[in-house]
Structures are given as C-alpha cells and as structure tokens.
Write a sequence for this structure.
C-alpha cells in the first residue's frame, strides 16, 4: 500500500488520504514504526503539494522524529528538505539547519537516492551555498544524476524533478533560454503524467523569453487543470493567475488581463479569510483587555474619591462645599463607568454564551464519534468507518466556519453598537461564483446538487465582505439541512428598465423550518422583534446575516415548508 500511494505521489497524481490513514492504522496495529513514518511522510508531502502548511508541517515533524529514532538516513533527508521550506519564514536558523543536514547526510550516504537529494540542491543553486555553484558544476551534477537514473531504471520517476530543479538554478542565473529548454524536456522527455505544475513551469519559461502567446496557452492549461487536479490548492491557483495576468498584459490582451487580475484578487481574499486562528486569539484578548481596562478605571476613580473624602476632615466649610462638589462630580463619572463596565460584562457574557452554544454540538459529536470510531476500527467495518470520517470532515468545515464567524462578529463592532459599514457598488456575480466553487466539493461529497443561476453582471450596493459572510452562512445552513439527493440553488436577478430592484435567493430542498421557528425568524428579519442568541434564539451565523441586513438596509424574506425546503431571498430597494 505504501508503494502504491508513493508511486502516485511521485507521478504527481492525487493520492487517497483514506488509504494512507488505513496504512497508519495497520502500522500502529503491527507496531511498525517505519511504516507509520512513511505514512506520515506521504501525508506531509501531499499537503505540501496542496500548500496546507499547518497539516504538512505536523505530519512531516512526526515522520522526522521516527526516522531519526531509527537512524533512517533516507527518511531524515527527505523530511528535512521539505521542512526547510516550511520554516523559511518562521526562523532564520532552522532552514540553515535542515539545509546543512541534507548536505552532510547526502554527501556521505552510500545510497544513490540520498546522493540525489544533495544533487538537487546544487542544480537548484540553493541560496545557502557559499559560493554559489557555477554553471559547469550544475552541468556536471546533472550528468551524475542522469547517469544514476540510467543505472537504476526504477529511479526513472525522478527525471522530471531533476529537470524542474535545474530550471530553478538557471532561473537564478538569468539563463532563461536554459529554463525553457528543461521545461520542454519535462513535457516531452519524461514518462510522468503531465499536470498543472508542468504547464505552469512551461508558461513561466515562455514568459521569461517573451513568447507571450505560448505562455498564455500553457498558463491557461495550468489554470484549467488545477481546478480538476488540485481544487483546494488555492495558493498555487493564485500563483498561476499572477503570471497569467502578466502574460495577457504583455500580449496586449488588456481585458483578459483585468479578468485574470480579478480572479487573482478573489483568490487572495479567500486565502486570507481561511487563516483565522490567530485572529480569534486576538479577538479574545481584545475583550479581555476591555474588561481589565474598565476595572482599572473603576478602581482609579474609587481611589480618587477616597482621597477626596480624607481631605474633607482637614478643610473648612468652604472647602467642604468644594469637596462635596468634587465628590458628586466623581460619583457621576463612576456611575457612568460602572454602567459602561456592566455593558461590557453583558457583552462578554453574550460572547461566551454564543461560543458555548455553537461549539456544544460539534464537541458532543466529536465525543460520540471518538467512541464510535474505536468500535468500528475494532470491528473492521470499513464502510461505516468511511461514513464517520466524512461526518468528521463536515464537522471540521462547520467548526471552521464558526471560528470565521466569531472573528467577523468581533470585528463588526457589534458590542459597541457602532456601524463602520460603507456600502459600495460591486459585481456580486464573481463573489457568488467563488463562494459556490468553495462549497461545491462539500456538496458533492454529501450527494447534494449545487446550482448557480446568475446574469452575466449583478451590480449590488453593499459592503462586499459582509455580503460574502452572509451568503456563506446561508449556504452552510442550506448544505447542513439538505439530505443526500437534494438540491441547493443560488440565483440572482438584476434590475430591469423601470424596476430598480435586485435580489439574491438561496433555495434548498431540505427538511424545512418548523412553523413556530419560521414565524420567529420572519418577525426578526422584518424588524418586529430583536434577535436573541442561544438555544431558543439564533445561531451566530444567522446573527451575522441579521447584522448585514440592518447595516446595509436590505430586506430578507424567508419561505419554508416542512419536508419541501426553504428559501432565503435578499432584496435591494431604491
């Protein structure tokens, strides 16, 4: 199983993570540390290709510890080479440590595959080499590596990687003609399955020699393939569109360049929105600091009053009257401070209530699934185990959305009742397309159809970020409550002549909303009652939707029927 999955990865084919996790289970059962290390290494490399740094770093460090404990030189070298790229931005000493380890072990090892890892550093002109390798040294190392491949035919799979690394070296030396030469060799003189990365390398090479039409063709193919081969590799998609917009521009295709730039910007936004863990920490610290600051103000004022009261004992009648006035003044200030402190404490309690309410369900589910997983593993029920793993993936997605919502709610100035929203006109069609693309894999995994029906352009006036948060939560609710075989439709209608209304509708064929809860929601969004948070009220996601409608002055209409489905329609009026 290890050989099969590693062969897929070496061919840049998508591996099945369920198979690798099965390897982990078998290796643990059979007490095979090297089998376990290899599984961790495969997962670490897979997440490196997807540029999921946190997961990749976690699995690679686990693998490295086991390889080091078993003195497995090859495993140590391969993990160190990948870990070097992960630590480049975090610590200036760690990358140098991993580089030195690959060089030291790769030079003296008796295994050709270890020597190969050292040769790659020379061909790529790694920045840590002092002095840098010359072109003759690069060529000599290339010949050694190709000779090794000819001697050991089972190493044929590394030929493409050799050509890619020497491209990096020639790129550093500004030898763009050589970069293109080896990019073409990858395409035509290797036996690997050509993928989006090969087309990206080729497109960049053509771009560097100013062959813009060929660059555009290669980069367009890369953009098309990555959506099929690696749909979750958002940073790699961003890089492709960065070079594609430049190629369009240099070729004089300004309209296409602008469109590519818009796609690039949307990917940058999605990547930024996906990283919220640090932001949530700052959100929690923000309100903790507010509580401490209010308490310090109250204590300072009480001390001032105490000092003033002491001075009354030593003053005369006039001084007494003056001090009484001072006491009254500070008392009023203290009362205002206490009112503000009480409001902040209530806001804090509401914040904690929301966290407890929305995290209770996934935590309870996690506890139940832990016991169930242990039972299924012992019983060897693979089909049921796959279903539980899928449920855990859905729960992870929902928890991820919850953390994003907590951060956005804190950023929205909800606690201090101030609105910083500045509605501006934007094309909602692109935002809706990006959001649907994000949710499409989850819908497909659940067996739910996700359809998008939009005009070519849909100009709306609202805060774009708040709009996307609201739609994201409505989509998440629809997916959560729509069973397998159901359908979710996202549609939009732009204004017609004499009819300045715009609308966005998210409809599903799910379980529907109970009549009592539906009446409550309709009263909330029509402005008749204020929303409540918690068990008997709204979840954080629907609170954010409510905030969006209030701040941007739009209407939300809700229709639902049990067993038929629900629809949420957002209307813009003049």
């Amino acid at each position: 199983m290890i050989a099969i999955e590693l062969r897929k990865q070496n061919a840049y084919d998508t591996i099945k993570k369920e198979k690798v996790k099965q390897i982990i289970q078998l290796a643990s059962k059979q007490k095979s540390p090297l089998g376990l290390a290899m599984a961790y290494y495969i997962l670490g490399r897979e997440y490196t290709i997807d540029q999921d740094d946190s997961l990749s770093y976690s699995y690679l460090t686990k693998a490295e510890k086991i390889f080091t404990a078993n003195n497995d030189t090859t495993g140590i070298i391969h993990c160190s080479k990948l870990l070097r790229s992960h630590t480049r931005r975090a610590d200036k000493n760690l990358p140098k440590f991993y580089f030195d380890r690959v060089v030291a072990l790769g030079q003296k090892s008796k295994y050709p595959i270890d020597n190969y890892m050292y040769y790659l550093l020379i061909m790529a002109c790694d920045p840590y080499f002092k002095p840098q390798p010359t072109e003759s040294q690069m060529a000599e190392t290339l010949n050694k590596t190709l000779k090794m491949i000819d001697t050991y035919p089972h190493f044929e799979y590394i030929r493409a990687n050799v050509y890619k690394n020497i491209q990096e070296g020639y790129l550093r030396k500004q030898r763009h003609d050589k970069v293109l030469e080896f990019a073409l060799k990858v395409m035509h003189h290797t036996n690997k399955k050509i993928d989006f990365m090969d087309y990206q390398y080729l497109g960049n090479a053509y771009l560097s020699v100013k062959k813009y039409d060929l660059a555009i063709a290669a980069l367009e193919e890369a953009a098309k393939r990555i959506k099929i081969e690696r749909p979750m590799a958002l940073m790699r998609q961003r890089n492709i569109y960065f070079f594609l917009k430049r190629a369009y521009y240099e070729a004089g295709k300004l309209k296409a360049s602008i469109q590519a730039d818009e796609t690039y910007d949307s990917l940058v936004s999605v990547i930024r929105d996906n990283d919220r863990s640090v932001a949530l920490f700052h959100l929690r610290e923000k309100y903790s600091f507010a509580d401490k600051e209010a308490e310090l103000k109250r204590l300072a004022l009480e001390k001032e009053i105490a000092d003033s009261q002491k001075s009354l004992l030593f003053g005369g009648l006039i001084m007494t009257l003056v001090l009484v006035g001072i006491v009254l003044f500070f008392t009023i200030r203290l009362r205002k401070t206490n009112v503000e402190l009480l409001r902040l404490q209530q806001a804090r309690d509401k914040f904690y209530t929301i966290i407890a309410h929305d995290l209770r369900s996934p935590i309870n589910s996690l506890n139940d699934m832990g016991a169930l997983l242990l039972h299924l593993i012992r019983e060897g029920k693979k089909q049921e185990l796959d279903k539980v793993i899928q449920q855990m993936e859905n729960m992870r997605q929902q928890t991820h959305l919850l953390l994003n919502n907590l951060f956005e709610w804190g950023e929205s100035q909800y606690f201090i009742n101030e609105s910083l929203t500045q509605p501006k006109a934007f094309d909602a069609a692109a935002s809706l397309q990006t959001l649907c693309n994000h949710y499409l894999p989850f819908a497909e995994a659940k067996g739910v159809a996700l359809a998008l029906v939009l005009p070519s352009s849909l100009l709306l006036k609202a805060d774009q970020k708040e709009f996307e948060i609201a739609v994201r939560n409505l989509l998440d609710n629809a997916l959560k409550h729509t069973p397998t075989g159901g359908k979710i439709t996202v549609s939009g209608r732009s204004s017609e002549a004499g009819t300045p209304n715009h609308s966005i509708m998210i409809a599903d064929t799910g379980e529907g909303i109970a009549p009592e809860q539906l009446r409550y929601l309709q009263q909330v969004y029509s402005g008749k009652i204020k929303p409540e948070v918690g068990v008997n009220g709204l979840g954080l996601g629907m609170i954010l939707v409510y905030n969006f409608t209030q701040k941007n002055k739009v209407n939300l209409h809700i229709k639902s029927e049990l067993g038929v489905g629900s629809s949420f329609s957002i209307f813009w009026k003049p």
Observations:
- Confidence is low (pLDDT under 50) at residues 275-290.
